From TrEMBL:
Claim: Signal is one of the keywords in the record: yes
Signal sequence extent: 1-26
Higher taxonomy: Eukaryota, Viridiplantae, Streptophyta, Embryophyta, Tracheophyta
Record organism: Arabidopsis lyrata subsp. lyrata (Lyre-leaved rock-cress)
Protein name: Autophagy-related protein 27
Keyword Transmembrane: yes
UniProt superkingdom: Eukaryota
Amino acid sequence: MSGKLWIPRFILITLVLSSFRVNSQCEFSFTGRNKVFDFNLASSIRNFPHGVLSEDGFYRVEANSTVLWFQLCDVLIFNHDPPRCVGCEDCGGPSHCGTSCSALVSENVRGYDVCTSLGHASSTKVDIIDKEDPGKGVIVKMSGGDRNQNCSLSVSVICQKNKVDGPLTLAKSGTCHYATQLRHPSGCAAAISGHSSGWGWFSTLLIIILCLFGAYLLGGAVYRYFSLGIRGIDVIPNVDYWATVPHSVQSCFGSLFSRFGGSSRGQRTSYSQVNF
């Protein structure tokens, strides 16, 4: 009985780990202008619980008798309107065309719709669109095909905080390199944090000490003024002690100067005697 339950449990664990691996490939961080720009395309955000992933299971764009299907950060899922083209050997086969890759394109060749795999989730790479303007968004690139024909798809996920637009355009370069763009809230940096800037720990500690000292003086002065009826400069708590602080600091610096200054003069005197 335990041997029969071990296989499904192993498969379940494998599927969970593979899902985490795919989503982690859509995480990206960029450091520029003393800031860290963090992107996680697959994370849940407001009004978009699946992040940049299409809830339909795929995005679709068509231009000049060419149809492109793609899904970011995951494989394609066709619950409706599946691709009907030949050449799906690298993407699910003829009976499940498009179900084992992340991008698929169909072109009409001599009256036949021919499919070409453009990328897989395992080959997905994320980079910044514009290093001069990191908040603009990211570009997701995936590659596929065989050794003889290396194809690719580049999807620019441009930051748009309120709604989703696209994909509307489809560009082709070379034999089978395609590019499109998508305006999506997931293209906005999820967290922008300061780096090598702002207050350090020592400055923060100094500010806390000064604030506590100010609160002590203010609270003591209010208490002495209203409760004890003290007026004038004596309203400051421990005013006699604070009056001696400048003299104490001056005496401390004077003793340090005389100590180190005297030792240096003694060393110069000994050096002059040796030279004679």
